[in-house]
Amino acid sequence: MIIGLTGTNGSGKGTVADYLVREKGFAHYSARDFIVEEIKKRNMPIDRNSMIIVGNELRKEHGPAYVLEQLYLRANATGGDAVLESIRTTGEVAGLRQYDDFYLIGVDAPQPIRYQRAIARQSATDHVSFEEFVTLEEREMRSDDPGVQNIAAVLSLADSVIVNNGTPEELFAKIEDLVGSLSRPSSLRMQGSRQIMPGK
Question: How many domains does the chain have?
Fold first, then answer.
């Protein structure tokens, strides 16, 4: 299977991806890394604003699903289970839904918790105040353009959403339950249902 991850900034998408790689043997393909390489080619600062600008420009030039389709093709060529991180536009979802082995998983958590996590990971793109964090997130949450970040809509399209507001152990248990449900012949998407894995 190929799992695509979507979710709000600092929600734990990277932690979910790392667990799938470490415990389940998934290969990991990152949209963030793909876009950062393009940012470096353009000699732009590596920050969230550049991520948004360059990601949107790539999708505008090559199509709304371009970045994630490139990652999917790499994963498919390699074979085996894979996780694609992270899906942010409805166009990307539409492009990936053509593949029967694709499942979209959302990750979310309350905003203050997510901000503290984002600061703690000390990424070059996360050196912002809480006010800047909120402003940038609002910019990414909604759009009528299928090639522009619309995280709220993408989360609504997910086959399952994990609410990550507890301990790492609680998150790992939710991942185990989710992967087990997807591995069974009657998967969530085949049943036409959507699963919410709540927090406490």
Answer: 1
> Could you identify the residue written with the tokens 């894979």?
82
Dist. CA 142–CA 184, nearest whole Å: 34
Q: Is the pLDDT of residue 146 over 90?
A: no
Nearest alpha-carbon partner for 84 in 7, 3, 10: 3
Residue pair 95/59 in contact (Cβ under 8 Å)? The answer is no
Backbone angles phi and psi of 29, in degrees to 5: -125, 125
Residue 91 token pair: 């166009």
> Residues of 116-125 as b/e, b for ≥16 C-beta within 10 angstroms?
ebbbeeeeeb
13-50: per-residue pLDDT in tens?
989 999 999 999 999 999 889 999 999 999 999 988 89
Rounded CA-CA distance 70/13 in Å is 19
User: Amino acid identity, residue 111?
Assistant: Q
The model's pTM is: 0.77
Write the CATH number for 62: 3.40.50.300
Helix 168-183 and helix 13-24, axial crossing angle in degrees, nearest 10: 60
Q: Which range marks the domain in which residue 73 is found? A: 2-197
- Radius of gyration from C-alpha coordinates of the chain: 16
